[in-house]
Each structure stands twice: as C-alpha cells, then as structure tokens.
Sequence to fold (198 residues):
Amino acid sequence: MNQLRRERDSLYKDIHSMVLSTAQLMCKNLKDEDVEDFIEKLEKDEILVKYCKQEESWKSAFQYIDSQNVPVEDECMVYEAIQKQPKNPPEHCHFYTQFREKMDGILHPEDTDLLETQCTINLIDPISKSRMKDPVKNVICNHTYDRYSIAEIMKRKSATGIRCPYQGCNNRELFKLQDLVPDEITKQALLSAEADSD
Fold:
C-alpha cells in the first residue's frame, strides 16, 4: 500500500509540473503580443480556478487518506466527499502562486534569472556522470537516475534494497527496482535536447 501511495504522490507532482511546463511552453511559442491574452484567457475562462480547486481536492484527500490509513478500496469515496466541500479562493493555492510567478517571468523576462534556474532539468545521471538514456524516478525521494546505472548498483549491493545514491539525499529508506518508474518529464527534456542539437 505504501508503494501505491508513493506512486500516487509522484504522479501528483508530475501532473503539477507538466501543467506548469505546458503553460510555460505555450507562452514561449506565442508571439509577444499574444502571451498576455493567453494568460488572461486561462484566468477568465476559469481554467486556472478549476485546476486550483482540483489540486486542493487531491491534496486534502491525500492528507486525509494518509492520516487515517484509509483502505485503498475506500479512497474513491473519500475523494468524492472532499470534492463536494467548499474550496479556498485560487490565490491560496500553491499552484496558483507558482503559475503567476512563471507567467510574470514570461511577461517580464528581465526579472527571471532565478526563475530560469528553477526550470532546469538535470539530464546527467548522478551515478555515471554521463547523459541519461533511459531516465527513471525513485518514487520514494523523487530523484532521477539512468535505468542501467541504478540497476547495476542494485545488482552489486543488495537484494533487500539500497539507499538513494544521490549526493545530499535526506531519505534513509531503502528502495528496490519496483520503486523506480519512468521519468517522462526528463525523457521529454532529453528528446528536446537531442532535437535542438540536430
């Protein structure tokens, strides 16, 4: 059950990142004069508000499910009940704050030095120190490695699992091969980097 919850949390973070990245990429591909209209449309059509309410529901449901140790088969009922509860205004949503920061960075690029570093995806495997080919994410701590590198370490070290080899990782929980999932965001970044170099 812990494995399912870790995968759920990892998926939730990936969805959050992908929505932000998609909006940012769309803005970067628009003409300068269309960017403000696009951002305004997202806000006026309540797309942003709907997503913030959805995210708040997920967060509340996950917190309740985890704190009460709700059985997996009952999680949908909890989620449906939380969906019906009143929501905070979007300005209180973490996603809304991040969205506004990213969009402000696009509208005012002179203020985005810090923003640019927040969007960097590391394509270098922390184990082999070479560019990843098949990135996988550890669902326990969310660090990414090349599948081959991490599998080799696991073969040599222990059948019971290993600690994250990422330097500076605070997680002390052992993980196994089944705790690794494909990292689609890094995979897309690798494909984009390859396309840019052609």
